[in-house]
Amino acid sequence: MVISHLSLTAFRNYSRLEQDFSDGVTILYGDNAQGKTNLLESIYYLATTRSPYAETDQQIINWDVNDPEEPIVVARLVATVESGPTTPPDHAESETTATTKTIELRLIRELKNGGVSFRREAVIDRRKVRLMDLLGELRVVLFLPTDLELITGAPAARRRYLDIMMCQADGVYLRNLSAYNKILDQRNAALKTCAETGRGKEVINLLSDRLAETAAEIFCRRARFMHDLAQETSIIHYENLTGGKETIKLSYLPRLTKEKIGRGANANNAELQKSADWLNEHSDSVEAVNQKYLEILQLTLDSDLASGVTQAGPHRDDWRFWVDGRHLAHFGSRGQQRTAMLALKIAEIKRLTKEAGDPPILLLDEVASELDEHRRLLLLDQISNSGQALLTTTDLSFFSSAFLNESSTIQVSNGLLTNLEPSV
Known about the structure:
With 424 residues, this protein is of the alpha/beta class. The chain is built from twelve helices and 15 strands.
């Protein structure tokens, strides 16, 4: 998968950008605050409909755009994406046909009720589609210096990371996740109404049935995906990153239990692991998982009514790292945490390539400076053999002359891009 052309209008510090990209590695070089990270952000935003940095869409709009008096497109991101030819994931002998698509996100600002609001439009080959239809059209893996927060931070960030990873490769998962979130909101609203009025339990029961149908698919697909991802991560960590000195375990911890689970160090790890073991044994039986989750919803109904929220389900799932049997977030060093995340990212590349049959585009934001020489060389070797990759840096000395000569280098200065000739 390759982005051959990127067009940005009123995005961050890019008033207007038209840029071609080659396959292979492209290094975005320049001082801080010139637009290197903004360029990576635009590609990630197109791929996932989310920004890794901004909390609201308003934050990504170019500051020079004037307030409108009528609806107007204030930011526009367009990418020409080429994919294939590739071997399908089922390893069929035939190859898929290479395709070229144009994907677009428009951010529209309009006046509503005396205030300013924003809405997004998604377009594929000039045809308006749902936002969720963009997912999978452009697949990316993003490396950030803040990736360690996935290990040490809140479960919600880890769930979001897992969802974005899986939605790029699994359309069925994406549709089930979207349906689950809608039904979950409806059930939570019904819980609050029932708690206040004493009426509507039959509605809750109906919504519980519908919730369990979608939840079972999500549980099973997460379990199978994470099982394969954990195996890949463990091998990379053990053989390539630590020379056989440390073992790592990546555990998917589904909230498929009626027990109340604490947070952080107080989490009931034994109960979570128990539900994980059960799910691993039944991940090929959606019906069995459906039934188990329904039973949990019935057992937790009173506490759900008291709290006004559904307390068990995929929306409370988590995953964690263990190194040599110890919880990495609590007992691991920064170096161990960084090594674990690097193993996970490389495994993510391999999994997405296998699932989709085409390698994702790699986006690396100032990651080289965060790694020691051994891990940096391993990462650079990986990206050199993984299709298209875009790296940002303020210092080209992190890269060897051979690597620089094999890469395209673009200097970024105040939102202007200049292609640099490789040194001899």
